[in-house]
Design brief:
The chain is an alpha+beta fold. The protein has 4 helices and 6 strands; from the N terminus they run αααββαββββ.
Amino acid sequence: MQLQISTIAWLTPTALSLVGAIILGARIVHAASSDEEAVRKVVNGFPEAWNRHDMNANGALFTPDADFVNVTGTHWKGRESIQLNTAFLHGAIPADSAGVTLPKSAYGIFKTSNSTFKQVDVRFLRKDVAVAHVQNELQGDARTKEPRHSLLVYILTKENGRWLIAVAQNTEINRPPALNR
């Protein structure tokens, strides 16, 4: 009986560790390195299109039914709305364009802006779903000389072999006081 108790006492922590490792390991998703490269290419396409003020290229990064919540908490639904409102902010479309949900005072505020992604972290939730956390710095906002910093969160999905942004959330960090008026 003594042998059985000591065997069970040793086996229990080992078995628990093994079960824990199996449970934790099941949550780790390993995607192909080519998928990570493709996700990073889409994510990095955002500042590239932004800096060229190419809102067609910017819009092409999103799924047709994408959601984007900007730094003011405005929720744009669908690629067309994201592209239209972003184009308005860049002054890339006429100020009186139909469908814009922003105040007229926001027209062209990013016309000369430049976005720089300082760090991009990618994690796969599933083989066809990835999340990217991005530290962004924005220079050239017409309303302030101070650089703006934000944390962007992108959720990307892979459909028909192509990665696109399905959800985006932009959270500003230490908003410059001039923008709080």
